[in-house]
Design a protein that fits this description.
Length: about 170
Amino acid sequence: MTGWIRTTEVTREAKRKGYAHPHFHCLLMVPPSFFKVNYTKQSRWAEIWGECMRLDVVPSVDVRAVKGGVDKAILETVKTFTYSVKPETLEADQEWTLEYFRQVHKLRFIAAGGALKDAIRSIDSVTDEDMIYTDDNPKPEAPEKELRQLGYSWRRHELKYRRFSKADRPAGE
């Protein structure tokens, strides 16, 4: 493996109320020879992952090759960074959301290494000036569907966020 990017996503479990399902999305950069000489089957990836996690069971692992050239590789890389939790997941259950914020506070949800290490470094190096829109750097078009902003406030004595509906903002504001 010549490089990797790992993001963490957390979803709500459908069958068990209040439970979360944290999982990784990993993009591995391998040399072309990997698919001819050193190919690792999905079942072996699952075994390796279970050993690393010290699990008594073989975990579920989904491994796919990115095919389609540079454009497809860029698309899959962007998809890896898409989100750590979906907005509709946060809106669905207030108590779950508050517990989620408490547990993920200060966790690193994106990491990279090897040849892809600089992918993260270049994101971290964006300056305030880079974020100012000018004629040379126009503001991106607004998404088709505007999302409303939900307000939360930090309760220091409770060490958690609480929903603060007075801070909500409608779409487009």
